[in-house]
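Researcher: Good morning. I'm working through a list of sequences from a screen, and I'd like to move beyond sequence-only analysis. For each chain I'm collecting a predicted structure so we can compare shapes side by side. This is the next one on the list. No need for commentary yet; just the structure.
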Amino acid sequence: MTGEHRDTVNRRRLLYGGAAALAGTGAAAWASGAWEAPAAGAVPPQHPGYADVVADFGAKGDGTTDDSAAFEAAYAYAEKRAAGGTGRTVILVPPGQYRVTKPGALLAADSPTHQVNGLRFVGAGLRISDIVFAPATTDGPDGGSYLCRNNDTWQNVSFEGLRFTSGTPGASFFYSYSTGGAANYRFSDCEWMGEWEYGIALDGSNTNSEMRWEACRVGGAYRKAFLYAGLSLHSTDREQQDQFLNYWFTDMNVTYEWGNFLEFPYGGSVTCRSGSYIVTGRRPTAHPDYGFESAFFRFPRPSHFDGVQRFHAEDIRFELRDDAVVVIDCAWNRGTVHFNDCDDTAHAFKSFSDALRAHRYTLTDNGPLVRYDSCQLVGTHQYRTASGATPPSCVRYDMCRLASHPSASFLALDAHQDRDFATFASCLPA
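Model: Good morning. Structure tokens for this chain:
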């Protein structure tokens, strides 16, 4: 082990171990009223800002005991400590497998008149601290049964070093409703497994945004999508959901069985940078909205406000192991789509690769502007023309390798559609 790696491990051990040691006495003492503030300048022997679901609230983490009550108590404690619009608690989840059956046990925020900034959930590491959500039913308000619910209450919520597993097929992880009070989520070193309806479902009328995922693994399967932005169940002005924007995915391992990774019916500003994106199979049964198809990026509606039709993918390796998988299906009527230094030739050896249409767009009089730079691409790209539209020059392939077809036959077009909208610059032929 190198000195640098050893130092990193030691720092992590100190961070979690020290926090856990503080939690075991601090939260319990504070809750009982026994905790006292230290003298000025002194370092407290324990701190009420750390709450351990095992030491303080009795979770077992043995994979069989229902730990719902312990997580509910930890969240209630954190909610109680919030003051002046600021959350002051870190909830610690030690190594173990925690079975949770009650929806909202991890986070149940329903006080939009008491908006708070700052709540942090910290596990011991990916595949070390595992929360298995196994509700008795997947029916519930807001389109499902959710482990976390944030109704316009918390901003700046972070999850670190945790694995979330759906123990009941069709359960959902997180429901977030915002009119301006739910935003700024961060997921670091987290993983999702099992069969979910939604990973994260965003709803509301404004600013359900500023969210980032870093070094996370998205596994399992999704009946709808891992991130579904624009649920529109309660919004009086549904078009205002176009205010959902700014989502960043960095250094991701997206390797799941089937379903959609991102679906944005109401627009968005999305950046996906570096990682491996793989769909390993196809849906076991036809879905009423998608049939057997799965997609990494699905933007199904054309009309949105300015500034929320922007997608950028960079340094990503795509692998499609079934012909019912799509990289992108975009119906935006303007905005920008940019792929830079991406590669989807990992499935070039498949018998279906030459006929694959894994990149699909609908073009209007205003675009969108579509650009591929330094990419390696397999199959053909499909361009549909909106009714009555004459697309301008809005599509460009620059220094790309076309692995299956030369540029003359690379575009799959509607009948009688010309290809004047597309430019190929310094591309290598098949």
